[in-house]
Amino acid sequence: MRSLTISNLFHYCGLLSTALSLxxxxxxxxxxxxxxxxxxxxxRRNQLGQDDDDDEQEDEQQQQNQQNAKKQHRxxxxxxxxxxxxxTKKVAEQHAKALEEDANIFDYDAVYDDLKEAERLKRxxxxxxxxxxxxxxxxxxxxxxTRKKDRLMAEEKKIAREREAEGExxxxxxxxxxxxxxxxxxxxxxxxxxxxxxxxxxxxxxxMTSFYRQLLNEKGNERQELEQYLKMHKGSxxxxxxxLKEVVDTELAQQARREGKDVMLNDNNExxxxxxxxxxxxxxxxxxxxxxxxxxxxxxxxxxEYDEYKxxxxxxxxxxxxxxxxxxxxxxxxxxxxxQMMESKAKEREEEERKQxxxxxxxxxxxxxxxxxxxxxxxxxxxxxxxxxxTSS
Length: 393
Description:
The chain is mainly α. The protein is about 75% helix and about 0% strand. InterPro entries: NS_splicing_regulatory_protein (IPR053246), NSRP1_N (IPR018612).
């Protein structure tokens, strides 16, 4: 009995030591055994048929290098994850701090809509006024009036040169001037003085500082006007948008019903489910000009802006041509007009001389015809008289 107890004790001690040795090898968490590296299917053998020790060492070295590379890659990934976590936390803290200071700090769309709403309302208010006025006829009439004045000035200079060329030839003659001609000369003199004054002012304002100052002042005034306009019409913003949406939904529903689709509207004339507007196949947006494009106001706004830009450019060109032109250009234009007038007068003079020459030639030919007729008559009478004398004798 004693020997059995001692043997059992030794047996228990052996089991305990084995358990302790196993516990030292285990870790907390999931303990998964690593898979053994598979041996190559075809290993190189020497000529004697035995494994080479150098190949085994190379395999062990390769396995060790792979394990080191994996550990290094794992360390780099962990480092990057730690850094990204720190950056994300910092950004989140800054984001939260900004939201505490201003709850609408990241509401960019609302800010942009508020900025553009004033411009849109102003364009809509001016739309009715602009459509009732002609766009280009005013500029055309002003340009025609300017050309007429330039022609009168050129003619006045031509007459002055002719008087200078005549000299004292008609100095003893009396000069008569009508009241209309006096008014015309005064008007031309006033126009010349006004053009000189405008050119002087334009030359003074050619510096870039004054140009940029004027530009900034105009932009500031426009901004103030837009802000005031926005404050005045801010109350009617939601109402106009709701009415526009109601009209668009109603027309879209009518178009869909004409196409055979079943579209439901609520009490506010709004489409309940916009998927009912879709049809089978590819749903392409309609082109500009159809009822489906009423919701897209961007193209219409761009067209209006382009028309407005073109009209402004025409007005600026005509204003520049009227007031800010160069004196040399004006003189060159006057000389061209004067040259054209002189050429036209020379052509008229040549035409008059040619007509007079033709009339003289016709008169000479007629005179020759009369003289030949008279001589022939005289010869006829002489022959007749001679015959009578012969018969009587």
